[in-house]
Amino acid sequence: MLKKTLLVSGIALAVAAPAMAEQRTSSVRDNGFSYSYGQLAYDRWDFDGDWDADALSAEGSFGLDEHIFLRGALRFYDGDYDIDGKQLSAGVGFHTPLQQGLDFVTSADIIYDDRDYRFGDDDDVGFEVRGGVRHATTEKLELSGGLTYIDLYDDDLGVYGEGLFKVTPVVDLGARVVVASDRDSIGVFGRYNF
Q1: Residue 128 included in any domain
Q2: Which residues form the signal peptide (predicted)?
């Protein structure tokens, strides 16, 4: 029941978000956040205290217009119990300014996971939906966070957070964390904005 409620809520939010953006009272049109970038990342995953994995990924985002962006990622992971695998994800996102230095951001990704382990292999197609805010905390630091819901092998609801430090106008270094009921992850990444 929770899974269906969250899915319907996410779809309703995605459909209503453009209309809400037109009705906003803020005069801010663009906070200057980059939604077009490529990045390399390392993450440490912990699945319900059962098994851990190290993941390397190449990720990207491309802004189509002032509100819509495309997302994609390719991940390779290696974990306990001879588990290793790869993930391919693609999706779409929406962002709009709420006020000066603060954007509302939501995204939805389709995820394909192919996993090999000691006793065989497994694969699944699922999705992840996120919704939260992105904040220009200082001139060099951005913070973001919100809710994440993933349905891949099993469904899981959690929170995410990310910090982004601007090294140069086009290069950023970041750290991220996800805390959920069945999965936790912590990671670092380097980003090139274009």
Answers
A1: yes
A2: 1-21
